[in-house]
Amino acid sequence: MSHPGTEGVLAPSELKRSITARQLYFYVVGDVLGSGIYVLIGLVAAAVGGAFWMAFLAGVAVATITGLAYAELVTKYPQAAGASLYVNKAFRSPVLTFFVTICMLSANMAAVGSLASGFVRYFAGVVGMSEDAVIPTLLIALAFITLITVINLIGISESVVANVVMTFIELSGLLLIMVIGVIALFTGVSEPGVLLEFSGEGSKAVAVLAGVSLAFFAMTGFENAANVAEETVDPSRAFPRALIGGMLTAGTVYVLVSIAAALAVPMDTLADNTLLEVVRADLLPISVSVMLVVFGLIAMVAISNTTLVTVVAQSRILYGMAREDVVPGVFAKVHPTRRSPYVALLFGGAIVGGLLLIGALIQLGGSDLDIVDRLATITVVFLLFIYALVIVACLKLRGTGETPDTYRANTALLYLGILGNLLVLGYTVVDDPGSLLWVAGLLAVGLVLFLVQRFNGGARDRPSTDGPTATAGTPNTDEGR
Amino acid sequence: MHVIVATDGSRASLVGAEQFQWIADSREITDVTVVAVVSPYAAVPFANELTERRNPQPTDFSFREEAEAAVGVVAAVFHGWGPTVHRQVRSGSPAAEIVKAAEEASADLIALAAGGRGLTSTILLGSTASRVQHSAPCPVLVCRPKRSASS
């Protein structure tokens, strides 16, 4: 069925967009802030030492340059598909486009797993449970994933107001850490010299690089802004400002929080721990036990918010691919009243649960695997690859589709961005080759979906030579029932 | 008389539009505005179940265009019926935007469909329809798919 353009009397279609630059800014800040620093600060601190704020600074810089490329591409192509769309426009390779889409999906799933494990650490901190018990932490992480999936099934996290409120809660926790840092500085708890200390032996640059790949995880999420590009008022003005402004806000907060944490807590306490250690330092004139609960709750809200947005992005990718016949049409099924893609949501939840289960089994087998670290690393591997490719796409698409309104990123910075993304990607893979097995596993899931579609769908031909599924067209299973 | 016909892209909403047309008298109606609302933050901002895949490239997928296509299908119900047919795709919270559309058009009636069938729709009652009923500036006609038509 196509557009019925045959109505007797027909007024032109009207378009009304709803997201303002300010709402977009809060969307970016909220999405970026919740992800990393609450979960990863201890790991980054352990990798670098007292100077770990430099790792965050470097991560912020590379991510923000990538953000510039996104801003340019979004103002040219304000559509929902994000990275896949840009790569398709630039390279016209269906295989590469499909690969990038699967990478994005996998990155989201690994990120949700890492966030869920990070959530458990705060939960354990608040209720006073041991983080080392494998089975209980797995069960809590699975319960968290179930809860997030149910919230998305019901669809109650969709309001603009809720988004802004969540962002302020996320910010409040980090402001608290900054206040503690200022108190630590003035009461002389530790020497400011700690900020220039590196833990590892060898060159300082390598030490920072070791932290960057994890710190980078903290900046991810900004690419989700492309999801709402279609609904943004005046995107060519709103996007560059909201995206870059939001990332710089988040980046500044990160650097200040990591400086504050380094000042307030000895490095060996912070290493491999959460921000709860900073609160536990007891520098505020309020009871520690109260503050631990308050801060733990703030952290859990922050992590939940980012997880919700990530799960939304993930189910959207699956839904969109199903609508376009790239993966089986069952993923395009929506609940009749709630209008949520329940098959995509349940499938995503199952894959994330599977990742956590595998992690727990490896831990039970006697390995000292850190599941937060591992899944964050996998996310970063996928995203660094995608980001580098998006910047290349941005440069390659120069001169096409430009209007006087198009935002134009600085070319030299973009080249620096490609180099930065590839450098961190290279280091991450060399440093943690075990993560590649997980990467391959997630890619295999995508391949299976593609093959199922190809061999189940087959019969119906699509017009001419398009996407990777030109021969794999199938009527959407939702239709014609 | 100006009527707002809302669609969420479901087949129930298409059946609802047909039911409204069957009930209404076209001589009394001057304008029909078919409205769809895209919810940017929802997992699926607009789920169009009324058309098949339409894009030559998978990456051309657009929720706004999905909404426009669904509006087109529902608007086609009123083809040759008499009233001027307007199409509108809005953005935001579905219930609030349907009410706003009615207010802007000084509509005299809102016609929409209430959910699907089964236990879940009884518990999680079609919240858009009930919210619109609460705050609408005009009468609201809530259509439900007939059991025989929906199987």
TrEMBL record, chain A:
Query: Which residue windows does the record flag with biased composition (Polar residues)?
Result: 466-481
Gene Ontology MF term list: transmembrane transporter activity
Membrane topology per the record? Multi-pass membrane protein
Q: What are the entry keywords?
A: Cell membrane, Membrane, Transmembrane, Transmembrane helix
Annotated region Disordered: the residues are 459-481
What are the TM regions of this chain, as residue ranges?
Answer: 24-46, 52-74, 95-113, 133-154, 161-185, 205-222, 243-266, 286-313, 342-363, 375-395, 407-429, 435-452
Instruction: Kindly state one GO CC term assigned in the UniProt record.
Output: plasma membrane
Localisation per UniProt entry: Cell membrane
Main localization is membrane
Q: Which InterPro entries match?
A: AA/rel_permease1 (IPR002293), APC_superfamily (IPR050367)
**One Pfam family of this protein, by short name?**
AA_permease_2
The record's Gene3D superfamilies line, in alphabetical order, gives:
Amino acid/polyamine transporter I (1.20.1740.10)
Name assigned to this protein:
APC family permease
Q: Which organism is it from?
A: Goekera deserti
UniProtKB/TrEMBL annotation, chain B:
Task: Describe the location of the UspA domain by residue ranges.
Answer: 2-144
One GO MF term on file is: ATP binding
Q: Which Pfam families match?
A: Usp
Arranged from A to Z, the UniProt key words for this protein are: ATP-binding, Nucleotide-binding
User: Which InterPro entries does the UniProt record give?
Assistant: Rossmann-like_a/b/a_fold, Universal_stress_UspA, UspA
Among Gene3D superfamilies, the record links this protein to: HUPs
Q: Which domain of life is it from?
A: Bacteria
Q: Which family is annotated? A: Belongs to the universal stress protein A family.
PANTHER family, alphabetically?
STRESS RESPONSE PROTEIN NHAX, UNIVERSAL STRESS PROTEIN RV2623
Q: What is this protein called?
A: Universal stress protein
Species of provenance: Goekera deserti
